[in-house]
Amino acid sequence: MKKLALAVLAALLSAHTCFADDHSTYFVDGNKLYERCMENGIWCIAYIEGVLGAMDARRILHGSSSCVRPNVAAGQVRDVVARFLAAHPENRDAPAALLAMTAIRETFCPGDST
């Protein structure tokens, strides 16, 4: 799982250098995601649904299904990610997508390496 997290981080850093205007920050870091989750639930849910969609696409490509239960509401996933960001302010300068993936995996997919 650590290798996967490092691979995701490397990919995000590569994408960052291509798309970000300011190379000192990520396109969206954990601080921005946390701020948006606190003030704009719709933006936060949309971002997190995008991350979850990417996670599910990867799982489908590897022959697995989503590890998030079918009846989990988008607001629940937002709450999980926001709680993770609040509990780990020391990591909020990392890429938001990586932090959201970590929160989702720890909560809904423990022990899953896909």
Q: Count of helical segments?
A: 5
Structural class: mainly alpha
Number of strands: 0
Unreliable stretches covering 5 or more consecutive residues: 4-10, 12-23
Nearest-angstrom radius of gyration?
A: 14 Å
Helix content: 55-70%
Through-space gap between termini: 8 Å
What is the correct CATH architecture?
A: Orthogonal Bundle
- Main beta sheet strand tally, sense and closure: none
Number of domains: 1
Order of helices and strands: HHHHH
Q: How would you sum up the global shape? A: globular
Mean of pLDDT: 82
Share in β-strands: under 5%
In the CATH scheme, the class would be Mainly Alpha
Question: CATH topology, anyone?
Answer: 10k-s Protein, Hypothetical Protein A, Chain A
Descriptive notes:
The chain has 114 residues and is an all-alpha fold. The protein has one domain (2-108): Orthogonal Bundle (10k-s Protein, Hypothetical Protein A, Chain A). The chain has helices at 2-19, 30-39, 41-61, 74-87, 96-108. It starts with a helix and ends in a 6-residue tail after the last helix. The model is unreliable at 4-10 and 12-23 (pLDDT under 50).
Key attributes of the depicted protein:
5 helices, globular, 114 residues, mainly alpha
Provide a compact summary of the structure.
The chain is mainly alpha-helical and 114 residues long.
